Amino acid sequence: MSTQMNLAYDYPLLSAFWTMLWFFLWIMWFVLLFRVVVDIFRDDDMGGWAKAGWLVFCIVLPFLGVFVYVIARGKTMGQREVAQAQRQQEAFNSYIRETAGGGKSHVDELARLSELRTRGDISDEEFARAKQMILSDGTPAGRATSVTSTPETPDTSVTSTPGRR
C-alpha cells in the first residue's frame, strides 16, 4: 500500500510565483471588468442603446469587449473618473462647510436680523435679544445657567432661571 504524499518541495518556487501571477491577473481582470461596466453606466454622453450595446458586448465577449472599450473610450474613461472624484470632493467640502457653520459671521447674522426687522417679521424687542445673543457668541441674554450638585445626589443637574423659551 503505497500512497503518494505531496510535500512542499514537490511544488517548486517558480510554480508558486507563476500561480501568484495568474491569481493577481485574474483579480485585476475582474477589477477592470467592473470599472468598465461602472463607466458604461456613468457616461452621460452615451445614449441608452449605446450603453446596452457596450454592456452586451462586454458580457457576451468579455475579453474582447473590455479590450475594445478600453481602446475606444479609455481616455474619456479616465476623464470621467477624475470629474466624478472632483464632484465628490466638492460635495464633501460643501457638507463640511455647512456642518461646521463656516461662512456665517456675526456681520452676516446681524444683517439677516436687520432685514427681518425691517420687513416686520420680528419686533424690536426680539431683534435686541437676538442681537445680544449673536454678540455674546450664542449665550442668550438674561439666562443664567449653573451646574449644581449636592452630597445627597451625586448626579450633576443643570438648572436655569426662567427666561425666553
Notes on the protein architecture:
The chain has about 160 residues and is mainly alpha-helical. It is built from five helices and two strands. It is elongated, with a radius of gyration of 33 Å. The N and C termini lie far apart (about 90 Å). The model is unreliable at about 145-150 (pLDDT under 50).
Radius of gyration from CA coordinates: 33 Å
Biggest β-sheet description:
2 strands, antiparallel
Helix content: 55-70%
List how many beta strands DSSP finds: 2
Query: Helix count, per DSSP?
Result: 5
The rounded distance between the terminal residues' Cα atoms is: 92 Å
- Could you say which structural class the secondary elements and strand pairing correspond to? mainly alpha
Give average pLDDT, whole number.
Answer: 80
